[in-house]
Amino acid sequence: MALTAVVRIPTRALLRPWARLRDSALGWMEPVGGVEVSTQRFGSQRVLVEPASAAGVAVMTFKNPPVNSLSLELLTELVINLEKLENDKTFRGVVLTSDCPGIFSAGLDLTEICGRNPAHYAEYWKAVQEMWLRLYLSNLMLVAAINGACPAGGCLMSLTCDYRVMADNPKYAIGLNETLLGIVAPFWFKDTLVNTIGHRASERALQLGLLFPPTEALQVGMVDRLVPEDQVQSTALSVLAQWMAIPDHARQLTKNMMRKPTADGLLKKRDEDIQNFVSFISRDSIQKSLQMYLAKLRQKKG
Ligand SMILES: CCCCCCCCCCC/C=C/C(=O)SCCNC(=O)CCNC(=O)[C@H](O)C(C)(C)COP(=O)(O)OP(=O)(O)OC[C@H]1O[C@@H](n2cnc3c(N)ncnc32)[C@H](O)[C@@H]1OP(=O)(O)O
Protein backbone atom coordinates (compact mmCIF):
# COMPACT_ATOMS: atom_id res chain seq x y z
CA MET A 1 0.00 0.00 0.00
CA ALA A 2 1.48 3.32 -0.99
CA LEU A 3 1.20 5.86 1.79
CA THR A 4 1.89 8.80 -0.41
CA ALA A 5 1.63 12.04 1.40
CA VAL A 6 3.76 15.08 1.27
CA VAL A 7 4.81 17.09 4.27
CA ARG A 8 6.39 20.45 3.75
CA ILE A 9 9.13 21.61 5.99
CA PRO A 10 10.48 25.14 5.92
CA THR A 11 13.56 25.73 3.84
CA ARG A 12 15.23 27.46 6.79
CA ALA A 13 15.10 24.21 8.73
CA LEU A 14 16.77 22.34 5.89
CA LEU A 15 19.49 24.92 5.63
CA ARG A 16 19.97 24.78 9.38
CA PRO A 17 19.15 21.13 10.13
CA TRP A 18 19.79 21.56 13.85
CA ALA A 19 16.96 24.11 13.86
CA ARG A 20 14.47 21.35 13.09
CA LEU A 21 14.91 19.73 16.45
CA ARG A 22 14.40 23.03 18.22
CA ASP A 23 11.44 23.91 16.03
CA SER A 24 9.73 20.59 16.56
CA ALA A 25 10.44 20.80 20.28
CA LEU A 26 8.54 24.07 20.20
CA GLY A 27 5.64 22.29 18.64
CA TRP A 28 6.25 23.53 15.11
CA MET A 29 4.36 21.32 12.69
CA GLU A 30 2.81 23.86 10.35
CA PRO A 31 3.10 22.86 6.72
CA VAL A 32 4.60 25.97 5.17
CA GLY A 33 6.28 26.54 1.83
CA GLY A 34 9.61 24.76 1.45
CA VAL A 35 11.04 21.48 0.33
CA GLU A 36 8.91 18.41 -0.11
CA VAL A 37 9.51 15.49 2.20
CA SER A 38 8.19 12.19 0.99
CA THR A 39 6.44 10.14 3.63
CA GLN A 40 6.02 7.18 1.34
CA ARG A 41 6.75 3.76 2.73
CA PHE A 42 8.98 1.72 0.46
CA GLY A 43 11.25 -1.27 0.65
CA SER A 44 11.30 -4.77 -0.68
CA GLN A 45 10.46 -8.29 0.37
CA ARG A 46 13.02 -8.53 3.15
CA VAL A 47 13.68 -4.89 4.00
CA LEU A 48 10.92 -2.49 4.93
CA VAL A 49 11.60 1.25 4.99
CA GLU A 50 9.15 3.53 6.73
CA PRO A 51 9.52 7.24 7.34
CA ALA A 52 9.34 7.92 11.07
CA SER A 53 7.13 10.65 12.46
CA ALA A 54 10.15 12.94 12.85
CA ALA A 55 11.12 14.63 9.59
CA GLY A 56 14.24 13.26 7.95
CA VAL A 57 14.21 9.93 9.77
CA ALA A 58 13.41 6.44 8.49
CA VAL A 59 13.17 3.06 10.12
CA MET A 60 14.67 0.17 8.15
CA THR A 61 13.31 -3.16 9.36
CA PHE A 62 14.82 -6.49 8.36
CA LYS A 63 12.28 -9.24 7.86
CA ASN A 64 13.99 -12.39 6.73
CA PRO A 65 12.50 -15.04 9.03
CA PRO A 66 13.21 -17.07 10.98
CA VAL A 67 16.47 -15.41 12.11
CA ASN A 68 17.28 -12.55 9.71
CA SER A 69 20.31 -14.41 8.44
CA LEU A 70 22.18 -12.27 5.94
CA SER A 71 21.33 -14.12 2.75
CA LEU A 72 22.48 -12.81 -0.61
CA GLU A 73 18.96 -11.48 -1.18
CA LEU A 74 18.79 -9.67 2.15
CA LEU A 75 22.23 -8.11 1.63
CA THR A 76 21.27 -6.95 -1.86
CA GLU A 77 17.97 -5.48 -0.72
CA LEU A 78 19.64 -3.75 2.22
CA VAL A 79 22.16 -2.00 -0.03
CA ILE A 80 19.51 -0.98 -2.59
CA ASN A 81 17.25 0.48 0.10
CA LEU A 82 20.12 2.28 1.81
CA GLU A 83 21.07 3.82 -1.52
CA LYS A 84 17.50 4.98 -2.04
CA LEU A 85 17.53 6.68 1.34
CA GLU A 86 20.87 8.29 0.61
CA ASN A 87 19.71 9.58 -2.74
CA ASP A 88 16.60 11.09 -1.20
CA LYS A 89 18.15 14.13 0.42
CA THR A 90 15.24 14.57 2.77
CA PHE A 91 16.50 11.67 4.89
CA ARG A 92 19.27 12.30 7.40
CA GLY A 93 19.01 9.42 9.82
CA VAL A 94 17.98 5.77 9.84
CA VAL A 95 17.18 3.30 12.60
CA LEU A 96 18.07 -0.29 11.70
CA THR A 97 16.00 -2.93 13.41
CA SER A 98 14.46 -6.38 13.09
CA ASP A 99 11.04 -7.85 12.56
CA CYS A 100 12.11 -11.29 13.86
CA PRO A 101 11.07 -11.69 17.50
CA GLY A 102 14.11 -12.02 19.78
CA ILE A 103 16.63 -11.84 16.96
CA PHE A 104 18.31 -8.80 15.42
CA SER A 105 20.25 -10.92 12.95
CA ALA A 106 21.87 -14.38 13.12
CA GLY A 107 24.74 -13.08 10.98
CA LEU A 108 25.89 -14.46 7.68
CA ASP A 109 23.61 -17.06 6.20
CA LEU A 110 25.49 -20.28 6.80
CA THR A 111 23.75 -21.93 3.86
CA GLU A 112 25.48 -19.37 1.61
CA ILE A 113 28.95 -20.37 2.80
CA CYS A 114 28.48 -24.09 3.20
CA GLY A 115 28.17 -26.69 0.44
CA ARG A 116 28.26 -24.21 -2.47
CA ASN A 117 30.75 -23.63 -5.27
CA PRO A 118 33.63 -21.11 -5.41
CA ALA A 119 31.75 -18.78 -7.79
CA HIS A 120 28.90 -18.58 -5.31
CA TYR A 121 31.26 -17.92 -2.40
CA ALA A 122 32.88 -15.10 -4.38
CA GLU A 123 29.55 -13.52 -5.28
CA TYR A 124 28.32 -13.79 -1.71
CA TRP A 125 31.48 -12.36 -0.16
CA LYS A 126 31.37 -9.40 -2.53
CA ALA A 127 27.86 -8.69 -1.26
CA VAL A 128 29.03 -8.92 2.37
CA GLN A 129 31.84 -6.48 1.61
CA GLU A 130 29.40 -4.14 -0.13
CA MET A 131 27.01 -4.17 2.82
CA TRP A 132 29.84 -3.28 5.21
CA LEU A 133 31.33 -0.56 3.00
CA ARG A 134 27.97 1.10 2.31
CA LEU A 135 26.86 1.09 5.93
CA TYR A 136 30.24 1.97 7.41
CA LEU A 137 30.76 4.95 5.11
CA SER A 138 27.15 6.08 4.95
CA ASN A 139 26.60 9.82 5.22
CA LEU A 140 23.37 9.10 7.04
CA MET A 141 23.25 8.85 10.82
CA LEU A 142 22.64 5.19 11.57
CA VAL A 143 21.36 3.90 14.89
CA ALA A 144 21.00 0.17 15.53
CA ALA A 145 17.94 -0.79 17.55
CA ILE A 146 19.15 -4.23 18.64
CA ASN A 147 16.00 -6.01 19.68
CA GLY A 148 17.40 -9.51 19.98
CA ALA A 149 20.34 -11.85 19.48
CA CYS A 150 23.14 -10.28 17.49
CA PRO A 151 25.98 -12.70 16.70
CA ALA A 152 28.79 -12.46 14.12
CA GLY A 153 27.64 -10.74 10.90
CA GLY A 154 24.67 -9.30 12.81
CA CYS A 155 27.08 -7.76 15.27
CA LEU A 156 29.22 -6.45 12.41
CA MET A 157 26.18 -4.79 10.88
CA SER A 158 25.35 -3.09 14.17
CA LEU A 159 28.97 -1.99 14.60
CA THR A 160 28.76 -0.04 11.34
CA CYS A 161 26.14 2.18 12.96
CA ASP A 162 26.92 5.41 14.76
CA TYR A 163 25.12 4.31 17.93
CA ARG A 164 23.71 1.07 19.33
CA VAL A 165 20.69 0.70 21.58
CA MET A 166 20.15 -2.84 22.85
CA ALA A 167 17.27 -4.57 24.60
CA ASP A 168 18.19 -5.24 28.21
CA ASN A 169 17.31 -8.91 28.13
CA PRO A 170 19.94 -11.38 29.41
CA LYS A 171 18.71 -13.94 26.86
CA TYR A 172 20.25 -11.86 24.07
CA ALA A 173 23.93 -11.67 23.27
CA ILE A 174 26.12 -9.74 20.88
CA GLY A 175 29.61 -10.38 19.59
CA LEU A 176 31.88 -11.70 16.88
CA ASN A 177 31.78 -15.42 17.70
CA GLU A 178 33.41 -16.67 14.49
CA THR A 179 36.11 -18.72 16.25
CA LEU A 180 33.38 -20.81 17.89
CA LEU A 181 32.42 -21.94 14.39
CA GLY A 182 36.05 -22.73 13.54
CA ILE A 183 36.25 -19.73 11.22
CA VAL A 184 38.08 -16.43 11.45
CA ALA A 185 36.72 -12.90 11.47
CA PRO A 186 38.42 -11.14 8.54
CA PHE A 187 40.62 -8.11 9.16
CA TRP A 188 37.87 -5.59 8.42
CA PHE A 189 35.50 -7.22 10.92
CA LYS A 190 38.39 -7.03 13.41
CA ASP A 191 39.14 -3.39 12.54
CA THR A 192 35.49 -2.42 13.02
CA LEU A 193 35.51 -4.00 16.46
CA VAL A 194 38.85 -2.46 17.44
CA ASN A 195 37.53 0.96 16.43
CA THR A 196 34.58 0.41 18.75
CA ILE A 197 35.95 -1.29 21.87
CA GLY A 198 39.74 -0.97 21.57
CA HIS A 199 42.55 -3.38 20.81
CA ARG A 200 42.90 -5.42 24.00
CA ALA A 201 39.18 -6.02 24.48
CA SER A 202 38.87 -6.95 20.78
CA GLU A 203 41.75 -9.38 20.89
CA ARG A 204 40.19 -11.22 23.83
CA ALA A 205 36.68 -11.11 22.38
CA LEU A 206 37.80 -12.32 18.95
CA GLN A 207 40.06 -15.13 20.12
CA LEU A 208 37.43 -16.48 22.50
CA GLY A 209 34.49 -15.76 20.17
CA LEU A 210 32.78 -13.97 23.03
CA LEU A 211 29.06 -13.33 22.89
CA PHE A 212 28.36 -10.62 25.45
CA PRO A 213 25.08 -10.42 27.33
CA PRO A 214 23.71 -6.85 27.31
CA THR A 215 25.23 -5.68 30.61
CA GLU A 216 28.70 -6.85 29.60
CA ALA A 217 28.27 -5.47 26.08
CA LEU A 218 27.55 -2.07 27.62
CA GLN A 219 30.55 -2.34 29.95
CA VAL A 220 32.94 -3.18 27.13
CA GLY A 221 31.49 -0.45 24.87
CA MET A 222 30.04 -2.75 22.23
CA VAL A 223 26.66 -1.09 22.72
CA ASP A 224 25.94 2.42 23.93
CA ARG A 225 22.69 2.05 25.82
CA LEU A 226 20.43 -0.64 27.30
CA VAL A 227 16.70 -0.14 27.58
CA PRO A 228 13.67 -2.35 28.21
CA GLU A 229 12.76 -4.34 25.14
CA ASP A 230 9.66 -2.33 24.29
CA GLN A 231 11.64 0.91 24.28
CA VAL A 232 14.46 -0.04 21.93
CA GLN A 233 13.05 1.59 18.81
CA SER A 234 11.67 4.70 20.53
CA THR A 235 15.03 5.23 22.28
CA ALA A 236 16.88 4.82 18.98
CA LEU A 237 14.60 7.47 17.48
CA SER A 238 15.21 9.86 20.33
CA VAL A 239 18.98 9.34 20.05
CA LEU A 240 18.69 10.19 16.37
CA ALA A 241 16.79 13.35 17.24
CA GLN A 242 19.75 14.44 19.38
CA TRP A 243 22.25 13.65 16.62
CA MET A 244 20.09 15.59 14.16
CA ALA A 245 20.93 18.74 16.10
CA ILE A 246 24.46 18.62 14.66
CA PRO A 247 24.98 20.27 11.26
CA ASP A 248 25.22 17.49 8.68
CA HIS A 249 28.30 18.68 6.81
CA ALA A 250 30.41 18.87 9.98
CA ARG A 251 29.22 15.52 11.29
CA GLN A 252 29.64 13.78 7.93
CA LEU A 253 33.19 15.09 7.43
CA THR A 254 34.06 13.98 10.94
CA LYS A 255 32.58 10.52 10.40
CA ASN A 256 34.47 10.16 7.16
CA MET A 257 37.73 11.28 8.78
CA MET A 258 37.27 8.65 11.51
CA ARG A 259 36.23 5.78 9.23
CA LYS A 260 37.78 6.23 5.79
CA PRO A 261 41.23 4.86 6.72
CA THR A 262 39.58 1.63 7.96
CA ALA A 263 37.38 1.32 4.88
CA ASP A 264 40.38 2.00 2.63
CA GLY A 265 42.01 -1.08 4.11
CA LEU A 266 39.38 -3.17 2.35
CA LEU A 267 38.83 -0.92 -0.68
CA LYS A 268 42.50 -1.30 -1.60
CA LYS A 269 42.29 -5.08 -1.70
CA ARG A 270 38.74 -6.17 -2.27
CA ASP A 271 39.64 -8.79 -4.88
CA GLU A 272 42.42 -10.24 -2.76
CA ASP A 273 40.02 -10.41 0.19
CA ILE A 274 37.48 -12.28 -1.95
CA GLN A 275 40.13 -14.74 -3.07
CA ASN A 276 41.25 -15.29 0.54
CA PHE A 277 37.68 -15.89 1.59
CA VAL A 278 36.98 -18.34 -1.23
CA SER A 279 40.09 -20.39 -0.62
CA PHE A 280 39.55 -20.39 3.18
CA ILE A 281 35.88 -21.30 3.09
CA SER A 282 36.40 -23.98 0.41
CA ARG A 283 38.80 -25.97 2.61
CA ASP A 284 37.43 -29.38 3.53
CA SER A 285 38.21 -28.84 7.22
CA ILE A 286 36.31 -25.52 7.27
CA GLN A 287 33.35 -26.98 5.42
CA LYS A 288 33.23 -29.84 7.94
CA SER A 289 33.25 -27.41 10.88
CA LEU A 290 30.43 -25.38 9.33
CA GLN A 291 28.37 -28.48 8.58
CA MET A 292 28.75 -29.65 12.16
CA TYR A 293 27.76 -26.22 13.49
CA LEU A 294 24.69 -26.09 11.24
CA ALA A 295 23.72 -29.63 12.21
CA LYS A 296 23.95 -28.64 15.91
CA LEU A 297 21.73 -25.63 15.31
CA ARG A 298 19.19 -27.80 13.52
CA GLN A 299 19.31 -30.55 16.17
CA LYS A 300 18.60 -28.08 18.97
CA LYS A 301 14.89 -28.44 18.30
CA GLY A 302 14.77 -32.20 17.91
C1 LIG B 1 43.25 -16.36 7.18
C2 LIG B 1 42.02 -15.56 7.37
C3 LIG B 1 41.08 -15.65 6.21
C4 LIG B 1 39.74 -15.16 6.61
C5 LIG B 1 38.76 -15.45 5.56
C6 LIG B 1 37.32 -15.28 6.00
C7 LIG B 1 36.79 -16.40 6.85
C8 LIG B 1 35.29 -16.50 6.95
C9 LIG B 1 34.62 -15.37 7.64
C10 LIG B 1 33.17 -15.62 7.85
C11 LIG B 1 32.58 -14.66 8.81
C12 LIG B 1 31.28 -15.19 9.30
C13 LIG B 1 30.38 -14.46 9.90
C14 LIG B 1 29.07 -15.00 10.34
O1 LIG B 1 28.16 -14.25 10.57
S1 LIG B 1 28.82 -16.69 10.42
C15 LIG B 1 27.21 -16.93 11.19
C16 LIG B 1 27.37 -16.94 12.66
N1 LIG B 1 26.07 -16.99 13.29
C17 LIG B 1 25.85 -17.67 14.39
O2 LIG B 1 26.71 -18.30 14.95
C18 LIG B 1 24.43 -17.67 14.90
C19 LIG B 1 23.80 -19.00 14.74
N2 LIG B 1 22.41 -18.99 15.19
C20 LIG B 1 22.07 -18.96 16.49
O3 LIG B 1 22.86 -18.89 17.38
C21 LIG B 1 20.60 -19.03 16.78
O4 LIG B 1 19.95 -19.48 15.62
C22 LIG B 1 19.98 -17.67 17.19
C23 LIG B 1 20.49 -17.28 18.59
C24 LIG B 1 20.30 -16.56 16.20
C25 LIG B 1 18.44 -17.84 17.26
O5 LIG B 1 18.13 -18.94 18.09
P1 LIG B 1 16.66 -19.59 17.99
O6 LIG B 1 16.66 -20.67 19.02
O7 LIG B 1 15.64 -18.55 18.07
O8 LIG B 1 16.56 -20.18 16.52
P2 LIG B 1 17.21 -21.53 15.96
O9 LIG B 1 18.60 -21.67 16.44
O10 LIG B 1 16.28 -22.66 16.24
O11 LIG B 1 17.28 -21.23 14.40
C26 LIG B 1 16.11 -21.25 13.58
C27 LIG B 1 16.49 -21.75 12.21
O12 LIG B 1 17.42 -20.80 11.65
C28 LIG B 1 18.61 -21.50 11.26
N3 LIG B 1 19.76 -20.60 11.44
C29 LIG B 1 20.16 -20.00 12.55
N4 LIG B 1 21.22 -19.22 12.33
C30 LIG B 1 21.49 -19.32 11.03
C31 LIG B 1 22.48 -18.76 10.18
N5 LIG B 1 23.40 -17.88 10.62
N6 LIG B 1 22.46 -19.08 8.89
C32 LIG B 1 21.56 -19.93 8.40
N7 LIG B 1 20.59 -20.51 9.14
C33 LIG B 1 20.56 -20.20 10.45
C34 LIG B 1 18.66 -22.69 12.20
O13 LIG B 1 19.48 -23.68 11.65
C35 LIG B 1 17.21 -23.08 12.25
O14 LIG B 1 16.93 -23.74 11.03
P3 LIG B 1 15.87 -24.94 10.96
O15 LIG B 1 14.55 -24.30 11.28
O16 LIG B 1 15.99 -25.46 9.57
O17 LIG B 1 16.30 -25.93 12.00
UniProtKB/TrEMBL annotation:
It comes from the Eukaryota. GO terms for cellular component: mitochondrial matrix. One of its GO terms (biological process) is fatty acid beta-oxidation. The keyword GTP-binding does not apply. Keywords: Acetylation, Fatty acid metabolism, Isomerase, Lipid metabolism, Mitochondrion, Transit peptide. Pathway: Lipid metabolism; fatty acid beta-oxidation. Transmembrane segments: none annotated. GO terms for molecular function: delta(3)-delta(2)-enoyl-CoA isomerase activity. Its EC number is 5.3.3.8. It is an enzyme of class 5 (isomerase). It catalyses: (3Z)-dodecenoyl-CoA = (2E)-dodecenoyl-CoA; a (3E)-enoyl-CoA = a 4-saturated (2E)-enoyl-CoA; (3Z)-hexenoyl-CoA = (2E)-hexenoyl-CoA; (3Z)-decenoyl-CoA = (2E)-decenoyl-CoA. Its main location: mitochondrion. It is found in: Mitochondrion matrix. Belongs to the enoyl-CoA hydratase/isomerase family. Key enzyme of fatty acid beta-oxidation. Able to isomerize both 3-cis (3Z) and 3-trans (3E) double bonds into the 2-trans (2E) form in a range of enoyl-CoA species, with a preference for (3Z)-enoyl-CoAs over (3E)-enoyl-CoAs. The catalytic efficiency of this enzyme is not affected by the fatty acyl chain length. Homotrimer. This is Enoyl-CoA delta isomerase 1, mitochondrial. The lineage of its organism: Eukaryota, Metazoa, Chordata, Craniata, Vertebrata.
